Amino acid sequence: MKDVYSKEQITALVEEFEYNEGLKSNFMQLWQDISDYVMPRKAFFTQTGSNPQRQVNTNLYDGTAIWANEQLASGLHSYLTPSTERWLRWQPKDLNLGEEIEVKEWLEHATDRFFQVISSEKTNFMPQIHEMWLDSGAFGTSPMMVEESFDYNAPPLYFCTYHLSQCVIQESKFGRVDYFGRRFSISPRLAKQYYGDHPKIMEAVNSKSRQDMEFVQIIKPRDEFDPTKRDSRNMPYESVHILMKTKEVVRTGGYREFPLAIPRFSKITGEVYGRSPAMTGLPDIKMVNAMAKTILKAGQKAVDPPMMLPDEGFLLPIKMSPGGMNFYNNSLDENQRIQTLDIKANIPLGLDLLDSRREHILRTFYLDWMQMNEGTEMTATEVMQRTEDRMRMMAPATGRLTAEGLVPLCERIFGILYRRGIIRP
């Protein structure tokens, strides 16, 4: 049985969502600046319209921050969720039970099934978790959805890292994210696949409309429910999909666990959204971009310098192409002939200043801790030990990423696999 929402309840849900969107507005320009310089493919935070498209940033002259964020994401991926290793092991709450043979066998079974599913070629876990780490380093907040699939030919679950511009979040009294909202637009054809034969959707499909339809999904704790019942109306979290044009509910549901992992790289007290290394390094990132532009202009002038032409004594037009022939009055002295303008640019000094700022950006993204010294011969054991030592320096960040990202992620995956019978009781 589905939930039935009155107009007043729908209005309250929409107003709450729009209020949270207003609270997020202070971050939108900051995220736009970061995406311009760190993740240009996601640079449409401040664009308006039902389906904003990314515009190429023609003012980007240096890719240091882009590369640094990719290296940080790769480091987090290889350290926290390596695709070639088992980075999770289940343990009972009562550690004494872990010594029993049957319990050990069941825990090993649960671990095997967990990694069989997320490591499957049909499951999109690895690309989406990497996207989550990229967003963490750039924007500080990275929501990843874990949905259960009921398609017989599809894996039991699938993952999706949402663009932060679409999303709003709120915290519980314990500081954990327990409210999530997302505004998105899709074509009528996709809306029919998602929501079925809803009258408003079918009206758009039958009219062959090419205009996208805007929806809002809200996931929040349910105020009242009966935990002894197993229907969607009695799950701890409710999910509501609203067609924004008519303010109609097109789907309701529920979740037994909060279905999103939303790690925040770091957080300031009183704020809901996370802070990131890119935010810390944004002044240097902008400075390096401006310096790179200036040095490139100086280099162009040095390679192809401006020309100084006398006001008489030459037949026009002056030919500057290779092999060009110019006729002039041979009575002109040296100072009256065509000369290059000496701009006296100190390019080496500019490069030194640029390198020092680039190095600071790399340190902001923890690359000085994550990378090994080149040219140093080490055994595999030494490499592993040094990697652990370096990543231990990032414990404050990785601890929060684990607690807010990996723990709820694994609990959600385990819950789905257990209810589906993939992990045996």
Describe the structure.
- A five-stranded antiparallel beta sheet has the order 3-4-5-6-7. A three-stranded antiparallel beta sheet has the order 2-1-8. Strands 9-10 form a two-stranded antiparallel ribbon.
- The chain is globular, with a radius of gyration of 29 Å.
- It has eleven helices and ten strands.
- It is 43% helix and 13% strand.
- The model has no long low-confidence stretch (mean pLDDT 87).
- A hairpin with a 5-residue loop joins strand 3 and strand 4.
- Helix 1 packs across helix 7.
- With 425 residues, it is α+β, with helices and mostly antiparallel strands.
- 26% of the residues are buried.
Short structural description:
The chain is α+β, with helices and mostly antiparallel strands.
Topology:
Elements: H1 7-37, H2 64-80, H3 101-118, H4 125-139, E1 144-148, E2 157-161, E3 167-171, E4 177-186, H5 188-195, H6 199-206, E5 213-221, E6 237-243, E7 248-255, E8 260-261, H7 277-303, E9 307-308, E10 339-340, H8 347-364, H9 367-370, H10 380-392, H11 395-419
Antiparallel strand pairs: 1-2, 1-8, 3-4, 4-5, 5-6, 6-7, 9-10
* Quantity of strands, as a count: 10
**Poorly predicted residue ranges:** none
Order of helices and strands: HHHHEEEEHHEEEEHEEHHHH
Strand count, sense and closure of the main sheet?
5 strands, antiparallel
Total helical elements: 11
Report strand %.
Answer: 5-15%
- Gyration radius, to the nearest Å? 29 Å
Strand order of the largest sheet: 3-4-5-6-7
Structural class: alpha+beta
Helicity, as a percent range: 40-55%
Distance between the termini: 27 Å
Average of pLDDT? 87
User: Given the C-alpha coordinates, what overall shape results?
Assistant: globular
